[in-house]
């Protein structure tokens, strides 16, 4: 065994030992939802108070459709599944009616993997140079890189069901429609920065609850 192999073996052994020591000392950190969330996440619930129910969520059921998109969402995040705390993973279910959409949005802190369960949908994500768009069907899987704007359109004849996994236990969501038209950003600023007609902006503000 040459010197390089010996160094590699020692490094691998020490890395494995360090990981084992850390994981054995702190196998999990169930979120204590009675305390406020901080920038670094939730505090750990005392292990004596942890039960198996902290690792189970039974609410990933069909979501109520939201107007005007005709799609419903349910999600398992650390807020309703405290055992996810620190694990950097969450789950979601999307139920889409005929012509339903998931509007253009992004997850700045998470990549996303979508599994098509029922129906036919068109999924796309956008970079400054290109739009990557694909029509997918049951058993297809598509991944959305972290932070990129993306969307889903029900392009089939019936309803569609999608399950997803995200690489954050508390993923943030930025929906373009609400960011532009759901707050008090003035119509004149939106018009100047997007080149949209004022009448169209006012129509969208009325739809998404914006003002100004």
UniProtKB/TrEMBL annotation:
Family of the protein in this entry: Belongs to the germin family.
GO CC terms: apoplast
Annotated signal peptide: 1-24
Cystine residue pairs: 29-44
Binding sites annotated in the UniProt record for oxalate: 107, 112
Keyword Glycoprotein: yes
Molecular function GO terms recorded: manganese ion binding
Cell compartments where the protein resides: Secreted, Extracellular space, Apoplast
Occurrences of domain Cupin type-1 (ranges): 58-202
Keywords: Apoplast, Disulfide bond, Glycoprotein, Manganese, Metal-binding, Receptor, Secreted, Signal
Annotated Pfam families: Cupin_1
Binding residues annotated for Mn(2+), in chain numbering: 105, 107, 112, 150
Protein name: Germin-like protein
Superkingdom: Eukaryota
Protein species of origin: Vicia faba (Broad bean)
